[in-house]
Amino acid sequence: MADVLDERSISLAGAQRVLAAALALAEKMDIQVSVAVAGRAGDLKAFARMDGASMLSGETARRKVYTVAMTGRSTKEFGSILKSEMSEEPELFHGMIGIDGIIAIEGGVPIRLKGALVGAVAVSGGSSPQDQEIAETAARAITA
């Protein structure tokens, strides 16, 4: 077993490309959002809050991107899993949501290359489906 892991993470240039793709789609949809892009460990690499986007959207995007990095799942999928377990294990739901920075609202998605998690992108400020669509589209901006 190796003493050191060789794991890939999104670069600043890649994070900026994802950020630009998200902002471009938000402009096209005529909504003001905040966008956060993080490396695989949840380290913030790029962030923007569009003029007119709420202050709360910035913090929400940051928490969504952290949640994706910590779980390796979209916030939509994470929320669905928690909801499905609610009746059998309510303590799991409350315990997970109680972890500082964890949030289960649509709009955060993993960025993967060849199946490996390299980062995350999250959007907040539109409706949940709009945030999700923008994040999914932006995540596809990374190719290598």
What would you say this structure looks like, in words?
The chain is an alpha+beta fold. The protein is built from five helices and four strands; from the N terminus they run αββαααββα. Helix 1 (12-29) crosses helix 5. A hairpin with a 2-residue loop joins strand 3 (108-113) and strand 4. The chain is 46% helix and 19% strand. The protein has one domain (12-139): Haem-degrading domain (Beta-Lactamase).
Q: What's a quick, concise take on this entry?
A:
The chain is built from five helices and four strands. The protein is of the alpha+beta class.
Helix content: 40-55%
Q: Give the total of domains.
A: 1
Shape: globular
H/E element sequence: HEEHHHEEH
Mean pLDDT: 92
Strand percent estimate: 15-25%
Query: Using only CA atoms, what is the Rg?
Result: 15 Å
Secondary structure layout:
Blueprint: H1 12-29, E1 34-39, E2 44-49, H2 55-71, H3 75-85, H4 90-97, E3 108-113, E4 116-124, H5 128-139
Antiparallel strand pairs: 1-2, 1-4, 3-4
Helix pairs in contact: 1-5
Question: What descriptive keywords fit this protein?
Answer:
globular, Beta-Lactamase, 144 residues, alpha+beta, 4-stranded antiparallel β-sheet, 4 strands
